[in-house]
User: What shape does this take?
Amino acid sequence: MTTKSFLLGAALALTTAGAANAADWVVTMGARATIAPPYEGAASEVVRPFPTLSARRADRPYRFTPPDGGTTFAVIDTDHFVMGPMARFQYQREPQGLLKGLDKVKSAIEPGVFVEVWPANWLRGRVEARRGIAGHDGFVGDVGVDLVYTGRRWDASIGGRAGWGDDNYMDKYFGVTTREAARSPVINQVYNPSSGRRYGG
Assistant: This one.
C-alpha cells in the first residue's frame, strides 16, 4: 500500500432505472496507475495499472475513496459507518536482481472485509482484514487515517498507513530458506520472520 498514487482514466457510474431507493445501486468502474514497489520489501518503484470497482446504494451520498482503497462493496453504509467485503491484488515477485536464487512468489488475490468510520465528512478511519489465495495463504491487516477533501472537480486525501502480516505472509515475502540461501549470490543467511509489522510506524 502506498500514498504515492494517482488516478488515470475515467470512472463510469451505472444505476438501475427508476427513482432511487434502497434497491438501487451505483457501481463505479475505472482504472488507475499506481507508483509503488512491485512487491512489499522492494527497493524500487514501478508504474502499474489497476482496475477499480466499487458499489454503493443509490440513496447514499458519494464518498471519495483514496487510490489505495482496493475493490469494495458497501453492505452497511451510514453517515458515519461503512462496512463490507473487499479484495486486493498482489503482483508476482520474480527471482531476479538481488532476489536471484529465491523462490518465485506468484500473484495473489486477497479477499477480506473493510470497516470505515467517518467522524466528519473530512476525516476517515479505515481497517482491513484479508487472507491471501494463490500467491500466499497468510492473513494481513491494514489500518489508515485520512484527511479528505471532496471538491467539485478534484478529490484529495492525505494520511498515514500501517500494515500487519501473520507468520505465513511474512515468511513468504521476507523469509529465506536454507535452499534459497545456498542458491543466492547475495543472501547467505537463513531468515525465518515471525508475524508483525509489514510497513508503517
Residues 37 and 190 are 24 Å apart (CA to CA). Helices lie at 167-174, 178-183.
